[in-house]
Design brief:
This is Fido domain-containing protein. With 373 residues, the chain is mainly alpha-helical. The chain has two domains: 267 residues, Fido-like domain (Fic-like fold), CATH 1.10.3290.10; 72 residues, Winged helix-like DNA-binding domain superfamily/Winged helix DNA-binding domain (Arc Repressor Mutant, subunit A, Orthogonal Bundle), CATH 1.10.10.10. Helices cover 61% and strands 6% of the residues. The strands form two sheets. A three-stranded antiparallel beta sheet has the order 3-5-4. A two-stranded antiparallel sheet has the order 1-2. A hairpin with a 6-residue loop joins strand 4 and strand 5. The longest helix is centred in the C-terminal third of the chain and has 39 residues.
Length: 373
């Protein structure tokens, strides 16, 4: 059996320290099964990229998919909130968010921070980026004891695993960073899966390791030009098969089974990319149907371009008010209200009371984002 690390004993504590990547003795095996999973994952990622390029407004889909990944990744850690709660708070910062909702919003901000550093500051994936993302992930949480943006300085236990001693975490992370940038012995997609595994085994933080580790997959796929935008919500598969997720990670330590983990991971990439692609097409179809409805309606057809603009704004922000929409389309209150009233009559959106302003929800779109395919 392949050994994947060593135990360092201090008193009655057995710290597990993983060996450096890539796998050795034997080296990683590109089995026929793995090559098949790899081929499917690469094909589905390519299809997702191509589909997203055809979208007339990529930004609104990217935003929705980032929120979806944030919800799913957080849910794996037992952090539960709703898409509606997240959307409501991101559009109205005066609204008081629950701790769980704030943590999901923080995940979105953590990804934004990392992508900004990678794309605009032109930084490579590095400890500085990981620490900045972690700081954003756990900021503004009352009673936070997880030291945001700082590697842990104490011993932790994760199930049956006691991760490496805190004193060697900076060294282990430095070695992992070197592997990311200097080793090309395996395809980038597989390398990203191994980096996620190594990160989770090192467990460098007191809290937030799973979310940052899954975020790291997205960053690596983007950095290696396998993903154009952060529209892959890989946590969709990890959450759906969460018992296998943890089992596959653990079996690397207990059985040296890197190949088993990568097989699972590649299926996660393939299925998540497929789901994202199907969802994009369903959203495109919904938009075409509603545009046709506008075109055929005697009232809306007279202000067709403006009605299309209102519809488009709902795809960007599916929960809105007249006041918010006025700022977007730059029309009078009465004009916007007439269009919204007609949208409600046609069943395109729903209206609910709000203490300061009427709130309108694009439930058809919200349902598509949450639907199980």
């Amino acid at each position: 059996m392949r050994e994947t690390g060593q135990y360092n004993i201090l008193g009655d504590i057995h710290f597990f320290t993983p060996y450096d990547l890539p796998p050795r003795n034997p080296s990683f095996q590109l089995t026929p099964e793995i090559l098949e999973f790899y081929s499917q994952a690469m094909y589905n990622l390519g299809s997702l990229n191509e589909t997203s390029k055809r979208l007339p407004d990529q930004k609104r889909f990217i935003k929705a998919y980032i929120i979806k990944e944030a919800l799913l990744s957080s849910a794996i850690e037992g952090i539960h909130t709703t898409l509606v709660d997240v959307l409501t708070h991101t559009q109205d910062e005066s609204a008081k968010a629950t701790k769980n909702t704030q943590l999901v919003i923080n995940y979105i901000q953590a990804l934004d921070v990392a992508i900004e550093m990678m794309q605009h500051q032109k930084l490579p994936i590095c400890s500085r980026m990981i620490l900045a993302a972690h700081s954003a992930l756990l900021s503004d949480i009352d009673g936070n004891k997880a030291t945001p943006g700082v590697y842990r300085k104490q011993t932790v236990k994760v199930g049956n695993l006691v991760p490496p001693m805190a004193t060697i975490i900076p060294e282990l992370m430095s070695t992992l960073e070197k592997y990311i940038h200097e080793d090309q012995s395996l395809p980038p997609l597989i390398q990203a899966g191994l980096v996620h595994l190594q990160f989770e085994t090192i467990h460098p933080f007191l809290d937030g390791n799973g979310r940052i580790g899954r975020l790291l997959i997205i960053l690596m796929l983007m950095n290696n030009k396998l993903l154009d935008d952060p529209i892959l919500y890989i946590s969709y598969y990890f959450k759906k098969h969460h018992a296998q997720y943890y089992q596959a990670l653990d079996r690397v330590r207990t059985h040296g089974d890197f190949e088993g983990w990568i097989s699972y991971y590649l299926q996660a990439v393939a299925q998540s990319a497929l789901d994202a692609n199907i969802r994009i097409k369903a959203i495109e179809s919904l938009e075409r149907q509603l545009q046709e409805l506008i075109k055929l309606d005697p009232q809306l057809s007279k202000v067709q371009d403006l009605s299309y603009a209102v519809l488009s704004s709902f795809f960007a922000t599916p929960i809105s008010t007249i006041a918010r929409l006025n700022k977007i389309i730059n029309k009078s209150y009465n004009t916007t209200q007439r269009i919204l009233t007609k949208f409600v009559e046609l069943g395109m959106i729903t209206q609910s009371s709000h203490k300061r302003d009427k709130e309108y929800r694009f439930d058809q779109y919200l349902d598509l984002l949450e639907k199980e395919y």
